[in-house]
Protein 1
Amino acid sequence: MARKVDISVVIVNYKVKEYVSNLLSSIRKAAGEYAVQVFVVDNDSGDDSIFYLQQRHPHVSYIANKDNLGFGKANNQAIKQAKGEFTLIINPDTLVSEDTFSTLISHMRSNPECGAAGCKILNPDGTFAPESKRSVPTIWAALTKLLGLHTIFPKSRLFGQYYLSWLTEDQQAQVPVLSGSFMFWRTDLLQQLGGFDERFFMYGEDIDLCYRVQDTSYNIDYVPSTSIIHYKGESTKKGDLRYIRIFNEAMYLFFDKHQSSRYSALFKAVIFSAIWLKTIFSFVISRLKSISWIAADLVLLNISIILGFLIRFQFSVEIFSDLQSFQFLWVNLLASGIYLLVGALLGLYQHKNDSISTPLKALFFSYLGVAAITFFARNLAFSRLSLLIGFGVSVTLMIGLKLVQINARRNQTNAKGQIKKSKILLVGTRADAKELIPKIHARPDWNVEVLGWVQTDYNFGENALENDDTLERLERQKVTPSTLGSLSQLEDLVKAYHADQVLFSLRTLSYKEMLRAISTLRGVSVQCKLIPDSMDFILGKSKVEYLESLPLVEVELALNKPVNRFIKRGFDLSLAIPCFALLWPLALLAGIKRPKGQRFLEPLAKYKWHNRSLLLLGILYGHYSWVGSILPVQNKLSKHSEEQEGGLKPGLTGLIQLNQGKLQEGEDEEHYQLYYMQNYSLGMDMDILLKSIFQPLDNWE
């Protein structure tokens, strides 16, 4: 006789397979002794989601749709097949705690009038998600939310209706509406209601379903004694016009279905118009937010042109003596138009602030275009020198602006131009840290620093290293994890070490403990990320980062291309010549003092600047480079043995030098060197040099 199913779980996936995999792992742990039936409905993700998940979770029932049917319709496919006493509708970008199922089943069985229940929902930063408990979005409730009155008067039943804000997050109560991200139903009631109304493609279907419970003898309960974490909208594009339109259409559909009978045709037309005006307004606001950084570029460009004009005429006030003097502003308009056009062609609008080279290219072509056009339009050709000065000012200010923008954003792992390393705390066992740290260090494209690991209070020592030989090997490889404290001290450790990210290892840390720890970090400026049991990727709020070495395929290396060789050599000379011009007396003196057969003067610490001047001379001769492999100053290498295999010269700095303290000797160094040669660009050299300025290296000790 087949065992009775306790819980049926329905998950709809759309291009978030890693989140689904992590959710399925948490469901497996939460299941305990309950019989759980799990459905994953894939809404035509267009990737290998089904295969990926089947390999990791073979006991799940999968439904593969050939089209994106929407949230409600996809859920209904599984709801019809649900055999559990209870059915959980849950978003793919969530995690449940070990006690979630037991807490809700106990509550439902103790309260037979409860037809559906929700729990406390936490945001990734540990803050409470107000949508955990909501009311029906009447016109008044929606208006108070839109005007922000619910935040001004949170305890008011009149103004706080939308999120029932007069109820505390830990106060159990009956509520009208649950969040569609987590809805725990009696299966017979859910099937009796016919599941979701399939006219709702996405959004609003959860409100509609909960609203229909009012016509039954059941009620809906908010049960805050257990909690989940929700990453919110990872499978949707909130700024996309299509999704904004779908959301607002859903709101009108709900109004038309349940409340329009109370109002006249004229009032319904007003509501319809208001919803579409809100759609347009929401789209405009989202676009303005996304292009604000382009506006900053344009402001900088125009200021630079005006400054170039002022510098050219030595800030003479006489140039503003009449309106005709302001005709040069046409040059500003022309340059701005070219910048926007070239920026679109170069993909500037897609790359946002993550690129320094792209806006510089757009800047170059803007000035080049203005110079070419003004050559033929004589009435605009005020001064070529003004444009040249303006271009120099623009480049300087643009680089400064981009560096400020990039470094103002925290928690980045691989942004070019990011000077400060992102500081990471690992939470788990020593064995977790021992496995994870080498994986993190093996990513040459990540600019991170692992501060150490935070031990879980209840399993400290259970995964300790078994013998001294293993510990000695790890110490030799420079990956021995440092114990910073216990989980109960996490908030203090984050503040004390100024951590940017906290990575929770879910292999040994319970979901309940993880959720509790995240909740203690409310108000602390830190990003919490999760590492699932498989230890192969990191889940954050906005993206998935794989803990795998980058594929280094033996193809033609970028650095070996003649054009890149030429660019690198030109870059070396352009920096070395002016520097050598300042240090040539030291180079001459060092050359006289240097014993025959030696590259540098010894002792190295005593003759730092003499040796640096000799290094500049070596760059001029082509023996060294600014960015390259490790400079073996201690080995007195001969002239012919200094160039490494593959043609990478020793350098003053490089990827290996920047990360020398965390790399394992041999394999990691070779991996970093090959990555540099495979992905070489002038921008990469500039980025490495910039980081080296703020993270000084000393090879002369």
Note: The chain has four domains: 7-134+175-234, 288-408, 422-546, 558-694.
Protein 2
Amino acid sequence: MSINKVGIRAGCWLFLTLVWSSGVMAVTPYWADPVPQGQLDVSLVANAGVQANVPVIAAFGVPFPRGSINSAGLANLRVFDQEQEIPAYVEALTPWRHRTDVQIDNQSVRVALVQVEVVFPNPALPRLLTVRWGGPVRTLNRPSRATRASTWTLVEAGSFVAADAVHEPRVLALLPPEWLSLGVLKGNRALPFAAGNPASRDNPATNDAVLSWPAFEEQERAHKNDFYTVINEDDPAVLPANLCPYKTDFEPWLYDRAATMFALHFRSGSAKALREALRFTDFYRARINASGMFTLKADDNKYAFNESLAYAFWMTGDETFLPAISLTAGAHNGTQHVWSTGLGFWTERSAAFKLMAHTIDYEITGNQVRRDSVDEIVNALSTHQDGANGVIPAAGRIDGGFYHTGAQHGDWDAAAYGASTWMTALLTDALRRAYLTRGDTTTAHMIRRTGTFLKTSLRTAGSDFGTTVAPRYVIEFDGTDFAVQSPLHEVEHALNVGSAIAWADYFGALLAQRDATLVGHRTSLYATYDLGVNFWIRPAGPASGLAAFRVTPWRKWSWQHRTSDGLSFAVMAADAVAGETPMFINSFEG
């Protein structure tokens, strides 16, 4: 084992611990190590309307790994402009919460709000500030918290126009992706994008000529390039009929498109991704009604989500997002999470959306009702996965699935017990979020066990990409395939199901119950996804008014990438246990 100390953009030191094939170590923890003393470089970017040499207030959230700093320690958080301390307003936005452990619950700051006044000599160029904590007491303070009216401005061009009544911060604050990838906001750790992957849209002809990018760069580039497509900036020649109708149609919003933009920003550091994430979240927030429903689809709580709303609050400190976080959580109150044969409807997706919304509402508000709801949902899912107290047949049952009837789901024989692969990927994403606030073995084992169900669902078949391994759409409780979809349809879920398998493998390693076969399956699924990406690139498309980087259907971008941001971390962290490949373990020191 060797340790190299290298400087990074964060202004801290990042230890990269390389674990070679001759060494074996414990799996990388789900939570990043505390950083009681350190510093971060923050790049401020002026939005439209900021004038040269006119003071403007920058407001931004600073996330901290659990146990790094308590509320009293915020008195020692200082902001520097070229080694000169400047006045700052600092307060805690959200503490780290724990559903059972009072030694953790509310004991350290998860996100702190920082507000400073700056000037931009040239608004086209970023300003660099440094945030430091764990040292001397702050001596310069701003007297009060600035309001939204003084820190946000109306968007008048680009993805929205003035008539849309969408607002954005006057100043964007970019924190290093190495820091944002630690999982403080997203809930699971990830790895930053490859250094050679720029924030700008790639040349589609260049990408089309590359069959396979190294490591996980294919996924990273697709996340980024398709982002430009879903905000209608693929190519100026794309005809209006082929643009994403995000202002008028609900379909592009399914699976939380704005949260997918935040996930892109967290790993890439892209100012463009952050700007659009905040714009789209503000558009969405303003269209949440009193029932917590999205007004473009007010009869369906599948479109009520609060992940992006939480990220917007944490990244900017703007409390305007808070009411919608709780309203959207409430939209799922009536969803039945306790499965029984008497239910007329039950899917993994509906349970996942309820668990995710209630968990995030608890993270933000600390509401005890929400805390208890999260516990109840997790316990109900555990009982369900175990066979629902003997209701689901045990003989021949593949372990790990959340089986229910076709009549309840709608995609297979009414009386038969089955489960959905891609919806299971949504559910394990929500379970990982719940795990963040408890760290319990019940949840960890549930995630681990889904790997058995998901690997059983895989089949090798011919597709437009050749012979590929892909997840069947649904399978019966004994592994029978009784809802056959086209191979192309199944390939489109290779990334999200492959990511779910990678996380099942990670939790298996964490629990010392690793299924060695999962490595090959997650590798095969990523290879399938890798081949599939090129199928959706058409460099000549704009000549006919079509997008070069295709996204069909629009919601696919979010189902593929929102839950898959931690794939590379899960793979490398689990593999490091067996010493199969070099692994980078991130920790910061001031």
Note: Residues 1-24, 581-590 have pLDDT under 50 and may be disordered.
